[in-house]
Amino acid sequence: MTTPVLEVRKLTRDYVTSGGFLRPAKVVHAVKGVNFTLQKGKTLAVVGESGCGKSTLARMITLIDPQTSGEILIDGISANAAHVTRELRQKVQIVFQNPYGSLNPRQKIGDVLAEPLLLNTSMSAAERRDKAMAMLLKVGLGPEHFNRYPHMFSGGQRQRIAIARALMLNPSFLVLDEPVSALDLSVQAQILNLLKDLQDEFGLTYVFISHDLSVVRYIADEVMVMYFGDVVEHGTRDEVFSNPQHEYTRTLFAATPNSSVESIKARLAKKAALAG
Amino acid sequence: MPLLDIKNLTVSFDTSVGLFKAVDGIDVAVDNSEVLAIVGESGSGKSVAMLAVMGLLPATATVTADKMEFEGIDLLKMSPHDKRQIIGKDIAMIFQEPVASLNPCFTVGFQLEEVLGKHLGLHGRAARERAVELLHLVGITDGAERLGAYPHQMSGGQCQRVMIAMAISCNPKLLIADEPTTALDVTIQKQILDLLVQLQLDTGMGLIMITHDMGVVAETADRVIVQYKGHKMEEADVLSLFENPKSNYTRALLSALPENAVGDRLPTVSDFVFEPAPGARA
């Protein structure tokens, strides 16, 4: 069997809020012992409501925050956020939720894209520029965008830029933290298509964090449901969607708006009965 | 007579590159105890149209309409002072970002009681009791303690409940909800939508839901207006909109829903060619 791109063993993370005088410190267990492995070219979706620890998990496997305990293996190499080598940094990248907040407003797009290369490789300026330009075209933007500032772009375009920046170092896997939840429906479709195309082209592995089940159903191979720091369900997409095991997963499915004609008919009939 | 009747509403903004029409000739009518959904992408002018009704647009905006009536009263000719008697009392609005719309410097109780004092003349203990009652109504059971909380001490869902409590505090005849659940989780979204629909059923008020989420439309609306770039693309009752959409744009929106994906790719809105909206200039 090949080495998985990402392996996580008994990963935990506690947040300690410092207590005051005569008040004990409080410990929040944000992630309580998560295990999973992810093979190359697959998409793992992490689902759960806000506060369930999915973003904390994302920050740990992208080596931004250190774990409290447990092990992260990236391409078989043990990783720790306290000491990230250039080699490891090139293997993991992240796309954040809010495309308005994650780009430096005073940096031109060309520089945004070239910066990961500047920090992590020893390429010349001309090489960096060529690479950045190539990536800009790859995510569906034009050469005229190279010297513009982030405020000149729409939300969807900014998310394309954030994805391009994450791909500059040819990472082994990409963590997408709610990449489409701030976007309109039609733009969301474009970004999801782009992610699929890029995955096919580069053989990318995604960890896709979302609370939108319809998006997850579209993009994921595997689904992991988190609830208060615990993984309550983990299986292939079809397993989880056709036969949810845990109570919380079922609640989540029930809460997702249903836009089928049958459910609208049922709702209108119920309303008419109540009114009449 | 409809509760709110707007004919040919146009809102334009003075920008450095000339006049920008955010809303161009929109007609909106809502009846008592009706749920109208206005759907569109960002920039389609769906919020601006309703802000124009509320009179909450900045001074750079020019609002014109052939008719803008609430219960037969002309809102266009009204003085700002008279308008304030209606806005916030008979017409109430829930804003998109609950955490940002509440004042971080004041407690939830203060903000809730302020509305009651201004519009209903309730002060002191009477206001406090009514505030607790309102919080209870929107599903915050420990209302008496919660009155002393600041917005940052509450979750997004709870802040949205407080916003709803403020909006319904004067028993409005029309409630405008501007993307009430966009910032919230699906489970909380479900609770908030159920709450709004239940309140609407109980009080018989008119409800306008502004949203870009077709799922929310399907779960709440009676009638739907689809808007695109300031123009109305389609107006239909909810069932016929989903069953048999007339406009290409509506069809595009519906097929961009991930659950309607056919094969490996999602159709995007730009894959469709639109017919121009009636009355639109190319």
The outline of chain B comes out as globular
Distance between the termini of chain B: 35 Å
Query: What ranges of chain A have pLDDT less than 50 throughout 5 or more consecutive residues?
Result: none
Q: Largest interface, per-chain counts?
A: A-B, 40 and 40 residues
The total strand number of chain A stands at 10
CATH topology of chain A: Rossmann fold
Number of domains of chain A: 1
| Helix proportion range of chain A | 25-40%
Mean pLDDT of chain B: 86
Q: In angstroms, what is the radius of gyration of chain B?
A: 19 Å
Would you write up a description of this structure?
- The complex is a heterodimer of chains A (276) and B (282).
- With 276 residues, chain A is an alpha/beta fold.
- Chain A is built from ten helices and ten strands.
- In chain A, the strands form two sheets. A six-stranded mixed β-sheet of chain A has the order 6-7-8-3-9-10, with helices on both faces. Chain A has a four-stranded antiparallel β-sheet with strand order 2-1-4-5, covered by helices on one side.
- In chain B, the strands form two sheets. Chain B has a six-stranded mixed β-sheet with strand order 7-8-9-3-10-11, with helices on both faces.
- Chain B is globular.
- The chains are: A alpha/beta (276), B alpha/beta (282).
- The interface between A and B is large, with 40 and 40 residues.
